[in-house]
Every structure is written in structure tokens, then in C-alpha cells.
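not sure who needs this but someone in the group chat was asking about L-threonylcarbamoyladenylate synthase from Brevibacterium samyangense so here u go. i didnt clean anything up, its just raw.
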Amino acid sequence: MPRTFDVRNDEVRDLVLAECTRVIREDGLLVVPTDTVYGIAADAFSQKGVNALLAAKGRGRDFPPPVLVARPEVVPALAEVRDQTVFSLLAKFWPGPLTVILPAQPSLDWDLGETHGTVALRMPGEKHVLELLAKTGPLAVSSANTHGVPAATTAAEAEAMLGDSVEIYLDAGQVPGVGSSTIVDMSAVPPRIVRRGPISHAELAEIVPDLLDFGAPAAAGSSTAAEPATSEAAPADPDGTAAEARDKAD
């Protein structure tokens, strides 16, 4: 049976986060609040957990989830940063609704699906999920909904769709539901927007002057932690150029 905990309760939050960490380390799934919508989360380094996440959403490996991190400093451990302007983007827009696609570190033992050698990273602005990420490490997170249905903006909506496929639902009340993050593919040359979102091309181009805008508008109500499309080497979607935004989730 799934369990729901109110993460806003200061008296039990430490115990709740410890239990969530145990679930993640045992390849289980959580539903967590983000600064966009609720997301379904698994250990980014657990193939069993990632596969369970995709199965819960009714998706295949061609929809690899993005990865949420607790702080920008972990990015070089997960991805190759070939363009130093990436760090300027992170300094200005993280935490927040910006997902950045980068070449994945080839030495890492993980399998997020058909990523074509890239990884989509985001640092969310929701304080409770940041506290969780500090304990669990990077989490693969996709919007908390079944495929083709708007993403949940409450824990109850998420549970109605995902049921007992998730072990713990973290309730932080209603989240903004602002839609998907902006996705920028910094693995492409030149870099490009592959999904439009809250951060505009003009804002991003102040830091990345050669940034192209190939992005389709983000669909309202569909996103969460960040769900980029699979970036293929040159452009794929979430990343890429060809980029077809991996879905509308964030």
C-alpha cells in the first residue's frame, strides 16, 4: 500500500526524508513536489528503478527521464561540460525551470533509456525536493502522470493516476503547475532551445549569443521535473536538434 506524508510537517520531515532515502536505495519509486508539477522519482543509477518509473507512466525507453540534482557543483560528475558558458547559465537560472542537455560522462554506470549519450539535468527550486536530493543524490524524475494525461499538481492527483506503483507520496500541497521547463541542448553545435518554457530565448541569449530557437512551445499542464526528449547526438530533442521534445513533462 502506498503511503502519503505531509513534507511540510517539520516534526516528522527528517524521518520522512530518511524513509524516502531508504525507498530510493531499494529501487523504489516516490512522488515528489517540484517547482513546476509533481514528479515520479527513482534512483538515477538504478536500472530497476528507472524501468519501474517508465512502466508506471506507460512509457518506453525512447522517453528517458531527466535527472534532478541538488546543486550545480555535481554537474561535472554527471556530464561533460565542453562549453564553459554552461556554468554561467546555471549560475543565473538554477534553481529554476531550466533543463540543460549535456554529453553524459561515459564512465558512469547508469541506464536512463535511449539517451544517445546525453543527459538532461535540472536543479528545481522547490525546497523540500532539494532537501531530499541532498540525501538521495541525483534522481531520475518524470512528471507524475500516466502517458498522455496532464501532470499532477497535487499529491492526491498523482496517486489517483499512479496508485500503488509508487511507495511514498510526498505532499507539499498544490504546486504551481506552470508547465514544462525550458530545455536547452548544450551538446549541440550551435546550442539550441529544443522546448520553450518560462525562460525566454532573449534571456538565454544574453549568456549564449549563438543560441538557436528550435523549440516547440511547452504544453500547458504537462511537466514536472523536467522531461526532456532524448537528445541525439546532434539534435535530438530534449534536447537535441532534431530535438523533439521528449514529452511535455519537465
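also The longest helix spans residues 13-25. if thats useful
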